[in-house]
Amino acid sequence: MADLHKRVYSMLGQNNNLKNNDIVKHFVQEGFKRRTIYHIIKRYEIGLPAEDLPNSGRPTSFKGKSLKRLQNAATNRIGVSQRSLGKKFGVTQSNIHYNLNKLVLVWLGLSAKGISIPYIDGTKGLAITADICINKCLSKRRSFIEEHHAGDEYIFWPNLASSHYAHKNSTMASSTKHQIRTKRS
Fold first, then answer.
1. Per-residue confidence band for 41, with pLDDT thresholds at 50, 70 and 90
2. Is the pLDDT of residue 118 over 60?
3. 141 vs 175, more confident
4. Per-residue pLDDT averaged across 52-61, rounded?
5. Which of these, 92, 95, 164, 158, lies nearest to 128 by C-alpha position?
6. Looking at the predicted structure, is the pLDDT value of residue 69 above 60?
7. Which residues, 6+ apart, have CB-to-CB distance to 119 below 8 Å?
8. How buried is 8 (Cβ within 10 angstroms: 0-12 exposed, 13-18 middle, 19+ buried)?
9. Which residues are CB-neighbours of 61 under 8 A, at least 6 positions away?
10. Which residues, 6 or more positions from 127, have their beta carbon under 8 angstroms from its beta carbon?
11. Within 10 Å of residue 177's Cβ, how many Cβ atoms?
């Protein structure tokens, strides 16, 4: 659409002897709406630029260096909450939540008897919580375990994410008779 604006503006600027009606006919033959072309001509006559200017609004709390500092403060930090980061940067927790990049959760079950369907999901925030781990990861993989390892002994061997070793996870694992490998520091 910005290309159309530029074309109409250039036609108006180069050909002073052309009437607005002739310009409209030219662009209507190309397949554009008559009302759109008249709207662009009106913008030209008022003196507005061909491209829209950035809209006004509340300025962002994070620009350049401070946004980079926030991302560095949140990356690979265990135990850093959005509230504590908000206090550190002088903004609200929701502002921190809005500015942090989305994390991707990939969960896959591997065994000698097969590979489960990968579970891929995005979460926004600092880390994967125990609730996400139980409700999304482990519950989705239960069918794979029951199908391939119904009577077998097996061990969950998660990565070093703290959510895998949360109290909720260990109680869920003990109730379903799953063994979870202990976390090493």
1. very high
2. yes
3. 141
4. 77
5. 164
6. yes
7. 105, 106, 107, 108, 136, 137, 140, 141
8. buried
9. 89, 91, 95, 99
10. 78, 103, 161, 162, 163
11. 7
Q: What average pLDDT does the structure give for the chain?
A: 77
Structure tokens at 75: 């990356």
Residues in the chain, total: 185
Which of helix, strand or coil describes residue 87? helix
SS3 category, 178: coil
Instruction: Report how far apart, in Å, the C-alpha atoms of 132 and of each of 77, 126, 136, 139 are.
Output: 18, 13, 5, 10
Structure tokens at 56: 């006004």
pLDDT at 164: 61
Given phi > 0 = left and psi -120 to 50 = alpha, else beta, which region is 79?
left
Who has greater pLDDT, 183 or 72?
72
**Cα Rg, the chain, nearest whole Å:** 29
